[in-house]
From TrEMBL:
Keyword line: Hydrolase
Name the UniProt record assigns to this protein: SpoIIE family protein phosphatase
Domain STAS span(s) in chain numbering: 416-505
PROSITE patterns linked to this entry: STAS
Disordered: annotated span: 1-76, 383-413
Origin species: Actinomycetospora aurantiaca
Compositionally biased residues, Low complexity: 1-21, 50-76
Length: 505
């Protein structure tokens, strides 16, 4: 089981073993927000838990922890107080899976901060394996739960007053079955002048029921239940008018994501196929594009190194790739081969840049080499952006990758346009294309990498050689790679200057 969520602030995706999906969305006025929702991971006896909390604007997930809340004031001062409370609560939830203990720590801090009194908060801790949700409210709306069948209800609050008050109440507990959605929100989402507060809660509950059942927008317009809930709740309720921040965070338990396991002979074609499977696996998780690029680059770099060096003279060699999404929102990557590890040369030779890429895109880089082979391991915390399923245009299938090509731009022979993957399979053709474009040229040249889908250190080495050759001849060689593309991501990592496409290009 996993917990799932999507967020306007791109909270991390979670999985492996029971997990949860989370989604948060916010509509606010022009003043700094005095409400926050945040999801974070906290320790638990069965591994990380999700926590959510809200104080003047926060939430958290981990066994899963969520903090959410609202301050009594507005403007920059209230936002600054909220920022402090959020940081303290997040730190508390990093060290405990006990919602009441985290709240006590927040209370002690709030007593020392001017303006923190009367801030409201809800702190919740979800065990994604057992489905147990423990939460505490302090003057804040209690969560709303909609079950998998679309039946909604407001949960029981703790009965406590805002921070700094003398009233408190006991922690509450409920259980989330697979497919249930629980929502944490600011009162700005439901509070309206001239309307009783309970009617606002009921309005949110009815909208959430419709979102879970898929009755508000046509089927297929949103990729997950939590995204439908967040988008529908904010878009519909905000249109009715709101005078305070309107923020929501939704959490749902989902089946665990199956790990990706690949075993194949170490050939360039199998490397390309393995990369395609990695891309498809990440696309299914709908991780942030930057995280997807980073993990694809890491796997591709490690595989290219295995084929080019470790197994260059052994056609019988094999590669093994493993990707696992754990409940703390991290993708753990392992790439192994049964070849011989070779120490990289200086970075100027190109291959040393491979380790720069690997070390920059993930944490905990470890390379274990022995006579039986080499294994590269790293991990990266991934996020998921909030997407508007109605307003956004469909995106192309991220699993499709065009074939490699490198051709002069018609009418501009000093510009070469490159597309597709630049890896061990296409490296020789890429070098020939670069050499042909610069042969006999007396003018500056451009290598347009806008359509490159994958760039490993083999390709980076060829680009460095091309630029250095041009500089020795007194010419400039410009690399074009728009921000957000695969080539831009890698060039920035290794420190090679690049430019954006010119308007008339």
């Amino acid at each position: 089981m996993r917990t799932t969520r999507s967020s306007a602030t791109s909270p991390p995706a979670r999985s492996s073993g029971p997990s949860s999906r989370r989604c948060s969305r916010r509509a606010s006025r022009s003043c700094p927000p005095s409400t926050w929702l945040r999801a974070i991971s906290s320790p638990g006896p069965n591994g990380p838990r999700a926590a959510t909390g809200s104080t003047p604007g926060s939430s958290r997930t981990g066994a899963s922890a969520s903090p959410s809340g609202t301050s009594s004031g507005t403007g920059v001062g209230a936002a600054a107080v909220m920022s402090q409370l959020r940081a303290v609560l997040a730190d508390a939830l990093e060290t405990t899976a006990d919602a009441e203990a985290a709240l006590r720590q927040l209370e002690r801090f709030a007593a020392t901060v001017r303006g923190a009194h009367a801030a409201t908060v809800v702190v919740a801790v979800l065990d994604p394996v057992a489905g147990v949700l423990d939460y505490v409210t302090r003057g804040h709306p209690a969560p709303v739960l909609v079950d998998a069948a679309g039946r909604g209800r407001s949960l029981l609050g703790s009965g406590g007053g805002p921070l700094g008050g003398e009233l408190d109440g006991p922690a509450q507990r409920t259980e989330l079955a697979e497919g249930d959605v629980v929502m944490f929100f600011s009162d700005g989402l439901v509070e309206r002048r001239g309307r009783p507060y309970p009617e606002g809660i009921d309005r949110l509950t009815r909208i959430s029921e419709g979102a879970v059942q898929g009755r508000i927008w046509p089927a297929g317009t949103a990729s997950s239940v939590v995204e439908r809930v967040c988008v529908d709740a904010v878009d519909i309720l905000a249109r009715e008018g709101h005078e305070d921040d309107a923020t929501i965070l939704a959490v749902s338990r989902r089946p665990a994501v199956a790990p990706l396991e690949i075993h194949a002979h170490a050939t360039p074609s199998n490397v390309a196929e393995a990369r395609a499977r990695v891309r498809a696996w990440l696309a299914d998780l709908r991780v942030d594009p930057t995280d997807q690029l980073a993990l694809e680059m890491a796997v591709g770099e490690a595989l290219d190194n295995a084929v080019e060096h470790g197994l260059a003279h052994d056609a019988r060699g094999t590669i093994a790739v493993s990707l696992v999404l754990t409940t703390d929102g991290r993708v753990h990557v392992s790439v192994g081969d049964d070849g011989t590890w070779r120490e990289p040369g200086p970075a100027a030779t190109g291959r040393g840049r491979g380790l720069v890429v690997l070390g920059s895109v993930g944490e905990g880089l470890d390379i274990a080499a022995d006579p039986g082979g080499t294994t590269v391991r790293l991990h990266r915390r991934v996020g998921r952006p909030v997407r508007d399923p109605v307003r956004e245009a469909p995106t192309p299938d991220p699993t499709e990758e065009p074939p490699f090509s490198a051709q002069p731009l018609p009418g501009a022979p000093d510009t070469i346009v490159v597309a597709g993957p630049v890896d061990s399979r296409s490296a020789d053709e890429f070098r020939r294309a670069l050499a042909h474009a610069s042969r006999g040229s007396t003018t500056d040249s451009t290598v347009d990498l806008s359509a490159v889908t994958h760039l490993t250190s083999i390709g980076v080495a060829a680009l460095v050689e091309t630029r250095e050759k041009a500089e020795r001849a007194g010419r400039r060689c410009r690399f074009v790679a728009p921000t957000g593309t695969a080539a831009a991501f890698v060039l920035d990592l290794v420190g090679l200057s690049r430019g954006e496409p010119e308007s008339d290009h």
